[in-house]
Design a protein that fits this description.
single chain, alpha+beta, four-stranded mixed sheet, 1 helix, 4 strands, about 20% helix
Length: about 80
């Protein structure tokens, strides 16, 4: 089995405020008022989730990185 070097995550604008980050391979979701805050929260949440886990069983290398995609809606022209 080939081990993954990255954990993929998506950051979206929150429904009410701020931003929401969600990992695709592991069950981690967090939020923050700013992009900096949600990024820090994501790093912490991933670290806490992986703490004490056998990363090989999860298909991950020992020190995976987080690859973040930022999802935005396109601007629409106004008349």
């Amino acid at each position: 089995m080939k081990l993954q070097h990255t954990i993929k995550a998506v950051i979206r604008t929150g429904e009410e405020f701020g931003f929401v980050a969600e990992c695709l391979e592991i069950p981690v979701v967090t939020q923050g008022a700013t992009l900096d805050a949600v990024t820090r929260n994501l790093q912490e949440a991933v670290s806490l989730h992986l703490e004490g886990e056998d990363l090989r069983e999860l298909g991950l290398v020992e020190h995976p990185t987080i690859l973040i995609t930022f999802e935005i809606e396109p601007l629409r022209a106004t008349a």
